[in-house]
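Hi U.,

Before I forget, here's the chain from the pilot set. I'm dumping it here mostly so it's searchable later in email.
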Amino acid sequence: MKHLLLIGLLPALVSLSASAADNALSAGKKLVDTHCISCHASSYGGDGSGIYTREYRKVRSFNGLKAQVTNCNTMLNLKWFDDEEQQVVQYLNHTYYHF
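Structure:
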């Protein structure tokens, strides 16, 4: 009986998980668009995405991406909470890095 209940709940849990991931990506994109793009565009031109896609980029791993987002948060005094940093990491990884 418990197995049937769990099987019945599985689609709902998967849907909630996908929805939470979409929300995190959306929140991360908003943070990047608000706080990062103007600086990156002035440094790398265009829409600023060149900083993520350039051949000689600094970020080479998922942990490196997390460290760089934390560094930017600290250096620019953005005062993001840990969950906001994680949303930015998820968005950047999903959109540019694919680690």
